[in-house]
Amino acid sequence: MAGILSTSIFLNFQNTFKKRCKTLFIEAYHTSISNNSIGLDFEENDITAILHNFINKNSKRKEWKIASNLENYIFDENSIYSKGFASKFSRIDMRFSKFWEDEEHNYFVEAKNLKVNDSGLKRRYITTGIDNFLSGGKYSDCDGFLVGYILEGSIENCVEGVNKLLKKDNREKEIIKKRSAFLSLDCHFSYHQKKSIYHLFLNYVC
Question: What is the pTM for the complete model shown?
Answer without folding.
Answer: 0.91
